[in-house]
């Protein structure tokens, strides 16, 4: 029951132009509300700007803090010229007085009405003119349907051009019925708009199944399995914005973090949260989180698999605890003319107790001197002295006590521990005898041991081992909420590294098992969630695809039986017939074929991505430059005059382009160490296109794609 209305007249000066309400023209009334809302927002901003703090702050520190808050508030009240302040309206079934004057028992009434937008705006009297999309009152905008109208009589969606409202579309939810819901035309337009520039927010068109994930409570961890283009990244980012709204104070204290697969991806998504008014969310890759040493080496896949295996956590734990010794001599503490003895056995019991409590190595190391001092204190009391707490602290700092603790519970440098494990075969075997096979140990050991932390050539997986060792020594601080995107590519040890950064908070885990391209990719979500330390998390599935046209997703899905037999094909919401083209070139003519396909793609509006196997990137770049088509690099912002990006297949994950030219699919598969990983990489590459995909190949297509 959608009733679209385009702008009847938009020329300035006509009876229906913005700001000139006319009773018969609902669009003009909506524009008038927009103009009034803008004026109110300006007034809200001016109110804050005119605050005079001279009398209220006692000192300059307070004044500086308050001023910073005020600046923040002023920024958050900025009006964005290119987006209207609201994108939707809800008319509830319940009635309210039409206006103050006539709001008598008999007076005219109208449906209670809310405008939904990116931020809250109120009029000078404090009455809401626009409600934040995250407020509970806004939720029916995303959830109400004809089968379950949630007291909503009418849902209106606005179309806009620049900062102006140019169309609206109504849904009468009182009509009842058994569904029959159709995709909104404004949603279709939003999905089909050309993708120039970085990723944009989707607040105006969040779908019900997405909304449920966005608004899930802060206390639980949610895991979202969804095929390409189902909106996982979008949902994850909107969820952070929602959580910051609903739990601002708590999250401001504890912090939030979005983790993505690489820097180009982070650059692609970095503007979504600021556009939603959220400027404080940190973004990082797992590599930057664990960057305790410079990474200059790469491991062969079998080695990286063992280093990323969760058993390594136990190997590290044992190796660390092996540093704890037992005293062989009694401890003697001299105070004044008296000597106090604590027998070795008694100290051994204290050490065993601390080990059994399983507290951090560093914390236990700090607790031991206090325990020893307590034992000395007891002896003093038995001898008739009356020592107080200060005496206990002094004894704990006594030279003899310190020396003993250093010997039996020595400080351990986490990176040195890893140097020893990877360089000393006997040490490694001693702590992994029943955990790893001989073959796995051989894979772990450096061919030639390094002498120290500085001289070692560290790999990404080594940095994760060091991170684990650091956490065994000292607890890693936890954030309030972490969003983990493209999670399927993480090793168990990487999940643990992320998990300790949200150990007392929660996480949103986003991924697609069919897009796992690492040799250690996640086989199943429950296992991954266990490594993350959140075994109780719910796994939700997103099935509607908003990016890839039907024909293209059907072609890519031919790979599913080989790469993820349990997963369903994405249900594309977009028809776009004629969106897939396969072109086989003459032998030796791949590069000219790619250039020609790019020229074709660029005749369309929007961005073009040329995806090629990594080994072909340089030759392809030369061919493009030679043809006058100098390309951008992945993550660079596309502009109207630079719309072609050359993307190595290994960096395509998470990105999208209006038109994609994919070169040599067989080469994409072969560039990976295993066929499984290669086919999944190809699946990623085949699912980046919004409007059209041209596959150009010189060699055979992988047999899994069929004929
Ligand atoms: N409800 C929606 N309304 C409009 N556009 C949407 C909606 N949901 C997703 N999209 C758009 O669909 C595209 C794909 O979304 P997104 O990148 O979040 O998908 P994804 O599941 O993370 O994909 P991938 O698995 O390939 O990384 C984006 O352009 C996004 O803005």
Automatic annotation (TrEMBL):
Q: Which InterPro entries match?
A: DNA_helicase_UvrD/REP, P-loop_NTPase, UvrD-like_ATP-bd
Q: Looking at the keywords, is Cell wall biogenesis/degradation present?
A: no
Chain residue ranges for the region called Disordered? 1-26
Q: Where is the UvrD-like helicase ATP-binding domain?
A: 205-549
- Has keyword ATP-binding? yes
An example Gene Ontology CC term for this record = cytosol
Where along this sequence does the record place binding of ATP?
226-233
Q: Which Gene3D superfamilies match?
A: P-loop containing nucleotide triphosphate hydrolases (3.40.50.300)
**Which biological process, per GO, is one annotated for this protein?**
recombinational repair
Q: Which UniProt keywords apply?
A: ATP-binding, Helicase, Hydrolase, Nucleotide-binding
What Pfam families would the database entry show?
UvrD-helicase (PF00580)
Which superkingdom is the protein from?
Bacteria
GO molecular function per UniProt: 3'-5' DNA helicase activity; ATP binding; DNA binding; hydrolase activity
Instruction: List, alphabetically, the PROSITE patterns matched.
Output: UVRD_HELICASE_ATP_BIND
- Name of this chain's protein: DNA helicase
């Amino acid at each position: 029951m959608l009733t679209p209305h385009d702008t009847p007249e938009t020329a300035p000066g006509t009876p229906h132009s913005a700001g000139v309400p006319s009773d018969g023209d609902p669009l003009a009334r909506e524009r008038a509300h927009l103009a009034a809302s803008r004026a109110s927002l300006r007034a809200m901003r001016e109110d804050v700007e005119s605050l005079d703090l001279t009398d209220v702050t006692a000192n300059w520190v307070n004044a500086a803090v308050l001023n910073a808050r005020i600046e923040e508030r002023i920024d958050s009240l900025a009006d964005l010229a290119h987006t209207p302040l609201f994108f939707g309206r809800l008319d509830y079934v319940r009635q309210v007085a039409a206006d103050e004057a006539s709001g008598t028992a008999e007076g005219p009434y109208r449906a209670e009405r809310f405008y939904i937008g990116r931020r809250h705006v109120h009029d000078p009297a404090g009455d809401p003119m626009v409600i934040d999309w995250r407020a509970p009152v806004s939720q029916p905008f995303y959830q109400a349907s004809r089968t379950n109208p949630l007291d909503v009589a009418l849902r209106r969606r606005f179309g806009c051009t620049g900062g102006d409202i140019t169309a609206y579309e109504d849904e009468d939810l009182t009509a009842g019925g058994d569904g029959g819901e159709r995709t909104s035309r404004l949603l279709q337009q939003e999905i089909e708009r050309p993708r120039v520039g970085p990723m944009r927010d989707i607040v105006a068109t969040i779908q019900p199944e997405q909304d449920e994930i966005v608004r899930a409570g802060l206390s639980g961890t949610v895991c979202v399995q969804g095929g390409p283009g189902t909106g996982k990244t979008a949902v994850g980012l909107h969820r952070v914005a929602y959580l910051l709204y609903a739990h601002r104070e708590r999250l401001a204290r504890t912090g939030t973090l979005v983790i993505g697969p690489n820097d180009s991806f982070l650059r692609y998504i970095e503007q979504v949260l600021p556009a939603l008014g959220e400027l404080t969310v940190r973004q990082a890759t797992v590599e930057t989180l664990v960057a305790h040493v410079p990474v200059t080496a790469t491991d062969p896949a079998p080695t990286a698999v063992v280093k990323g295996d969760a058993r390594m956590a136990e190997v590290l734990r044992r190796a660390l605890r092996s540093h704890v010794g037992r005293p062989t001599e009694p401890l003697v503490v001299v105070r004044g003319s008296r000597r106090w003895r604590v027998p070795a056995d008694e100290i051994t019991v204290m050490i065993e107790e601390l080990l059994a409590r399983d507290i951090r190595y560093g914390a236990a190391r700090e607790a031991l001197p206090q325990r020893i001092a307590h034992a000395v204190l007891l002896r003093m009391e038995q001898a008739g002295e009356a020592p107080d707490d200060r005496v206990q602290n002094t004894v704990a700092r006594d030279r003899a006590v310190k020396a003993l603790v250093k010997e039996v519970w020595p400080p351990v440098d986490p990176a040195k521990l890893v140097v020893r494990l990877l360089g000393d075969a006997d040490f490694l075997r001693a702590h992994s005898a029943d955990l790893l096979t001989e073959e796995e140990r051989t894979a772990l050991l450096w061919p030639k041991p390094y002498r120290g932390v500085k001289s070692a050539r560290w790999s990404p997986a080594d940095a994760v081992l060091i991170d684990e060792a650091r956490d065994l020594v000292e607890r890693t601080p936890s954030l309030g909420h972490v969003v983990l995107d493209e999670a399927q590519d993480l090793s168990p040890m990487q999940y643990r590294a992320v998990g300790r950064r949200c150990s007392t908070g929660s996480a949103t885990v986003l991924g697609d098992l069919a897009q796992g391209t690492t040799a250690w990719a996640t086989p199943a979500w429950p296992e991954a969630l266990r490594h993350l330390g959140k075994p109780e998390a719910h796994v939700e599935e997103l099935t509607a695809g908003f990016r890839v046209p039907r024909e293209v997703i059907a072609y890519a899905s031919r790979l599913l039986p080989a790469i993820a037999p349990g997963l369903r094909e994405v249900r594309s919401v977009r028809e776009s017939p004629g969106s897939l083209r396969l072109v086989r070139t003459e032998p030796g003519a791949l590069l000219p074929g790619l250039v020609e396909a790019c020229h074709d793609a660029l005749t369309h509006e929007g961005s073009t991505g040329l995806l090629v196997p990594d080994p072909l990137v340089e030759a392809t770049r030369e061919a493009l430059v030679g043809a006058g088509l100098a390309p951008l690099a992945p993550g660079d912002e596309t502009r109207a005059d630079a719309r072609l990006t050359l993307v190595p297949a290994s960096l395509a994950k998470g990105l999208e382009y209006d038109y994609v030219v994919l070169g040599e699919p067989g080469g994409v598969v072969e560039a990976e160490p295993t066929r499984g990983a290669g086919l999944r990489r190809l699946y990623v590459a085949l699912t980046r296109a919004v409007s059209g995909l041209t596959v150009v190949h010189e060699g055979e297509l992988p047999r899994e794609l069929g004929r």
